[in-house]
């Protein structure tokens, strides 16, 4: 008995199936469509080109942010103009740690959204957080939001650049320098401990090694110029610090005589070597724990 010859048509069909299967494995996954009505805030996931909804934003109420009145009012005005379709600036919130920079961005977003909803306009302003390490994907995010309905605050917390990091060029292009420019329905807010987003020694190193030192430094300093609004946060005074402590305590109903609370709060700040909104919040967390009081909220 002899073997039957293989059917050439079947062999070709099997080969085509194997090729198609291999191509499917190599093909990129289908893009995921984000439901922008799912939440008021999202986190950008560049690996999947996806906006991940955040159901409960970690924020504090605007009234609890003390000692930063001018910065609060300026950012709120800028944000409300933007949400209403009027001209507004990208904003850089820079300065002392723990003074409420990121808390202010989230609180202003909630406050402006509340006003829009009171006018029957719904949650038209979305907050999109992009992590520092994902800044190179900012142009992709901007392109995705360009044709999306509503207005978007793209927010990067603790933004800075070091060493040989060149991703700041992506940020410059996405904010103002690209051929399309920033989408009219997108604004960029960032917080940083540095006004120019880069350490002084990095700029001095550029100045000492470049063929044209002035131009090398200017390229890096010009990044901050993409932010039309600069808001500086400085260390608070003792009175401002105590005002923050009392505001949290009153809000959460923490019962302790003012004299005792003042003495404890000052000792707390001394042991940490800093007076700030974050220190005031941490003291209140400790006080709440000692008195058996539950808290909800976030640090500055």
Could you explain the architecture of this structure?
This protein is an alpha/beta fold. It has 2 domains: 41-233, P-loop containing nucleotide triphosphate hydrolases (Rossmann fold, 3-Layer(aba) Sandwich), CATH 3.40.50.300; 238-291. It has 10 helices and 7 strands. The chain has a 7-stranded mixed beta sheet. The longest helix has 19 residues, at 8-26. The protein is elongated and about 95 Å long. It starts with 7 loop residues before the first helix and ends in a 9-residue tail after the last helix. Mean pLDDT is 83; it is low at 206-216.
Number of domains: 2
Q: Which CATH class of the largest domain?
A: Alpha Beta
Give the end-to-end Cα distance, rounded to a whole number of Å.
85 Å
Mean pLDDT: 83
User: CATH topology of the largest domain, what is it called?
Assistant: Rossmann fold
As a whole number of angstroms, the C-alpha radius of gyration is 26 Å
Count of DSSP helices? Answer: 10
The CATH level-2 architecture of the largest domain is identified as 3-Layer(aba) Sandwich
User: Uncertain spans, ≥5 residues at pLDDT below 50?
Assistant: 206-216
Class from helix and strand fractions: alpha/beta
Q: Name the helicity range.
A: 40-55%
Globular, elongated, flat, extended or rod-shaped: what is the shape? elongated
- β content, as a range? 5-15%
- Tally the beta strands: 7
Q: Can you identify the CATH superfamily of the largest domain?
A: P-loop containing nucleotide triphosphate hydrolases
The largest sheet, given as strand count, sense and whether it forms a barrel, is: 7 strands, mixed
Strand order of the largest sheet: 2-1-4-5-6-3-7
């Amino acid at each position: 008995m002899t073997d039957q010859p293989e059917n050439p048509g079947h062999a070709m069909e099997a080969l085509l199936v194997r090729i198609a299967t291999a191509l499917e494995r190599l093909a990129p996954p289908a893009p995921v469509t984000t439901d922008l009505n799912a939440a008021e805030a999202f986190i950008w996931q560049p690996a999947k080109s996806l906006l991940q909804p955040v159901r409960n934003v970690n924020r504090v109420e605007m009234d609890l942010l003390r000692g930063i009145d001018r910065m609060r009012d300026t950012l709120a005005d800028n944000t409300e103009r933007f949400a209403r379709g009027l001209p507004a600036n990208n904003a850089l919130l820079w300065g002392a740690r723990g003074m409420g920079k990121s808390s202010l961005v989230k609180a202003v977003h909630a406050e402006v959204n509340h006003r829009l909803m009171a006018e029957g306009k719904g949650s038209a302003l979305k907050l999109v957080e992009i992590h520092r390490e994902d800044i190179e994907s900012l142009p992709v995010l901007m392109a995705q939001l360009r044709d999306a309905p509503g207005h978007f605050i793209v927010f990067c917390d603790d933004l800075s650049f070091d060493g040989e990091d060149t991703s700041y060029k992506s940020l410059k292009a996405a904010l103002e320098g690209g051929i399309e420019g920033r989408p009219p329905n997108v604004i960029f807010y960032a917080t940083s401990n540095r006004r120019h987003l880069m350490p002084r020694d990095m700029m001095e190193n550029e100045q000492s090694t470049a063929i044209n030192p002035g131009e090398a430094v200017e390229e890096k300093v010009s990044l901050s110029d993409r932010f039309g609004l600069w808001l500086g946060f400085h260390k608070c005074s003792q009175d401002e610090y105590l005002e923050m402590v009392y505001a949290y305590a009153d809000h959460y109903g923490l019962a302790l005589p003012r004299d005792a609370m003042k003495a404890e709060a000052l000792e707390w700040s001394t042991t940490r070597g800093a007076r700030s909104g974050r220190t005031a919040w941490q003291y209140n967390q400790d006080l709440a724990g000692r008195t058996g009081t539950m808290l909800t909220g976030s640090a500055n």
